[in-house]
Structures are given as structure tokens and as C-alpha cells.
Amino acid sequence: MTAASGKVRSDAAASLEGVLFDGMTIMSGGFGLSGNPEYLIDALLASGVKDLTIISNNCGADGFGLWKLLDNGQIKKMVSSYVGENKLFAQLYLSGKLELELVPQGTLAERIRAGGAGIPAFFTRTAVGTQLAEGKPTAEFDGVTYVQERWLRADLSIVKAWKSDPEGNLVYRKTARNFNPNMATAGKVCVAEVEEIVEAGALDPDHVHTPGIYVDRVLAGGRYEKKIEFRTTRPRAHT
Questions:
Q1: Among 47, 56, 81, 197, which residue's Cβ finds the most Cβ atoms within 10 Å?
Q2: How many CA atoms lie within 13 A of 142 on its CB side?
Q3: What is the pLDDT of residue 92?
Q4: Which pTM value belongs to this model?
Q5: What are the tens digits of pLDDT across the range 63-116?
Q6: CA-based angle 116:128:185, to the nearest 5?
Q7: How many CB atoms lie within 10 A of CB 105?
Q8: 12-121+152-220: what CATH class?
Q9: CA distance 4 to 95
Q10: d(CA 207, CA 46)
Q11: Where are the domains of the chain?
């Protein structure tokens, strides 16, 4: 299924048609190099849309993923939990050319989930007493201090899944699931790229991770290299 019909779009550029504008906020799924919407990121790069606020666990790796948008000067602010080995990310932030809202990883996931669930704020013990909690309201519950965190929502969510049907019901594969299901619910528009679009009725309803009601457009991405960020090996045992 490659022709545009219903939610299915022919390619990444068509999937983002009429959605993009300068200064928008975009959620991008993925964790490290796993579960990144690669073709949609390339379409964002080609579009030239700028002054973006990107909500994502990290900002890709050298030459891959969201790094491309960062390198092209399209990102104004990152809301992330991990700067990691991304030297460009660190360099731009330390030089004042990139805004950064650093969020503990579990808090980031819950803020996104809250955005999708319609919960504007919640309280957590994480970051209490640290710089990350400065200026935020606190409250005491059962003798313990908690800090208030606000939901995260976006103009657009781009996610990567393993399979979809024509209605946008999504199935993720193993660790590539990561932030994708939560982000799919927290964007005004959700575009999903998948490895395969199957016929209607081919997916077991019990295996669907993201119901199609959350997904506005879907495309089959194509071939995925599935890079390994850090390869760890051990010597083969001699027998």
C-alpha cells in the first residue's frame, strides 16, 4: 500500500504536508538510535522548517537522526533527558546557541504520558532539592516533599513503529517501543512511519500498542539500517 488513501501516505514529505510551520513544537520518538522516525526526520530536514522546539530523549548521534536538524540550525530548543555522546549538542548548548530543558528520564516519560492523558500537572520526588526543581511549586504528601511537573504536548508527534494497518493501529518491536507510544498520544497531529503496512484485519487487536484513533497519517518508511550505538563484544570461548 503506497498510494495515498485515508491515513496512508506515499512518502514522508506527503505525510507532513500542511502540518509544518516555523516555531512549532515536535515530539520525536526514539531512545539512542532505536525507534527513530528516520524518514520523517529527513523530510523535516528537506522542508527547512526552523526555530523548532524538539521533545525527545536525546538528539541523535553524529550524522544520524535529529543530529541532522541540529547541524542544519533548525532546532532552537531541546527538551531532553540525555545529551550523551552528541558533541554538537553539547557544543551548541555550552556556547549559548541552543536552549535546553534537561528533564530526568522517568519524569520526561511521565510528562509526555500526562500530556496525552489530559493531566496538566503531577507531583514527583525526582529532582527535589536540585537545580532542576528550582522555581517549581512543591507540596508535602505524607510528610514527604514532592515537586510539581507540568505535562508536555506538541503540535506534531513523529513516531516509528514496526507494523501498521491502514487505520494507523500500531505495533512496536521490542526496545524500539520506548517513548513512541506515549508521544503518539500527546501531539495535536501524529504521523507514524512503519516498516510494513499490513491489510486491515491482519493485526491481532490484543497486540496493538497504539490505537489508530491517535494516528492521523502513516507511511511505510522503507529499508532501515538499525545502527548499533555502542557495540560491546567479548572474546569467544575456546573449546
A1: 56
A2: 2
A3: 95
A4: 0.92
A5: 899 999 999 999 999 999 998 778 999 999 999 999 999 999 999 999 999 999
A6: 5
A7: 15
A8: alpha beta
A9: 44
A10: 34
A11: 12-121+152-220
